[in-house]
Amino acid sequence: MRLNEDMAILEDISSTKEVLTPDDPFQRIVGQEHAVTLVRSAVKQRRHVLLCGVPGVGKSMLAKAAATLLPEPKEQITLRHNPLHPNRPEVVLEHLDTDQGQQEAPIVLDSVYFRPDNLPFDVAVKMGYRCSRCGSLSLPSQSVCMECEATKRYEWIIGETDNTSFSGLFRTLELIGEPALTTVSRPESFNGVPVSATYERSQDDTILVRYVHNTSEPQTSRGEFPDHVLVSRTSRRFVRASGASPVELLGDVEHDPYGSADSLGTAPYLRVVPGAIHEAHEGILYLDEIAALGPYQKHLLTAMQDGTFPIAGRNPHSSGAAVRVDDVPCKFVLFGACNVEDLHKILGPLRSRIRGYGYEILLDSWMTKTSETVRDTVRFIAQTVREDGRIPHLDREAIFSVLKIAETMAFQLDGARNALTLRLRELGGLIRVAGDLAVQESAENVKSSHIEKAKSLSKGIEGNDSRSIGQKSNMPQSNYGDYFF
Ligand SMILES: Nc1ncnc2c1ncn2[C@@H]1O[C@H](COP(=O)(O)OP(=O)(O)OP(=O)(O)O)[C@@H](O)[C@H]1O
Ligand SMILES: [Mg+2]
């Protein structure tokens, strides 16, 4: 397809100002129809995606567009001080549709068996094992004490009620002869922690005691240990991570210079920092250079398999190293990006997981030149101008110059004839340089002459005068360079 054919396609356009550009992030993506279709269904079905392609063809754009399809997050991840083991904070997963969060099971801190003679006095009286007057032991089935012949629960009730008031007296009379209780609960202290102790009689007259730490207490009553929101309901669930550091990816526990000095230091649960995998819970974790993760790929795989991943202090010399939070939720959809050459650096099991539960998508670096793809490329030019916001629109001749360059790039970089490049970041760069030149000249539009000038300015370092950079022949092959002639 030659220039006059391009002109025929664009006969109605005199400048990119007249070109409509869509707001929908998927519609803004030029080419890559195959990838767009797969990504749309991947998000809907919560499948993992590996986007593979040369730089600047829209991998990040696709991932960001995918994020717009995510439903609102429903869960908030909160950490709670664990008074028994401060270095093992508790995780609470709260749901958006309930005020109090998920129904929490009470945490049983310990359970032990007691014999009746070891029970606290008042509990033994309530359960009918002791006479409240003389304290002697007998079975609950005996309502009268064999030692002092008192009604077993009488004096205890007098003692517990206000025996100077009539209401106390009537209550006392009501309860005389009442059967002994099989279960008694009372507040107690367990290793210095306030708990609810429940005594339960079993058939062989042993008593099981459970010390329960009631986590459904409202937050306001947590006093000096208010909950620590690790991943807020309202947080953005499109999380981009380079994976260069394990802390960024997997989380950490910050160092506290006061270490374990309780009264001075910051409580461990407040020093826990979520990783990108946790922040992306219910959302998308976008890993730009997934192959660069190296050995951390196996942690990523574990997180994907389990849907939870512990957060621990990663620096062994820090006080944070003693702290660990188990089972922190991280149910994310992985969007990984990589170059084709780096595919072999991705762990086999990780690729297999992505293939098994998602898609590996190869992005195109060029598209066949048709009237439709010509219009798409012109739309891309208009998008670039509007996104930049500081450069004027391209006139008709400038548009043809850009189309010609797009065609040359497809041929020189990918060997594709009668094609247009999809390496659009570079093409966008050229348009911006041309736009800046037009601004310098106070030109109303970007003209073909600006594009021509930008071509030479846009050459990368390798494409410039070799005298300033040493031996040109030693420079690596550049994406810039000769295709701008
Ligand atoms: N297919 C495309 N459609 C529209 N614009 C594109 C497309 N590809 C790239 N661009 C333009 O190039 C810019 C960079 O694209 P993007 O960051 O998505 O590339 P990438 O493939 O993620 O590159 P890298 O491998 O370097 O991370 C985008 O902001 C957009 O302006
Ligand atoms: Mg990118």
The structural domain count equals 3
The tally of beta strands, per DSSP, is 18
Q: Residue share in helices?
A: 25-40%
State Rg: 36 Å
* Top CATH class of the largest domain: Alpha Beta
The fourth-level CATH homologous superfamily of the largest domain is P-loop containing nucleotide triphosphate hydrolases
Q: What's the main sheet like?
A: 5 strands, parallel
Flag low-confidence runs.
98-102, 154-175, 216-221, 465-482
Strand content: 15-25%
Instruction: Quickly give the CATH architecture of the largest domain.
Output: 3-Layer(aba) Sandwich
pLDDT averaged over residues:
83
Major beta sheet, strand line-up: 9-12-15-1-16
Ligands (ions, cofactors included): adenosine-5'-triphosphate, magnesium ion
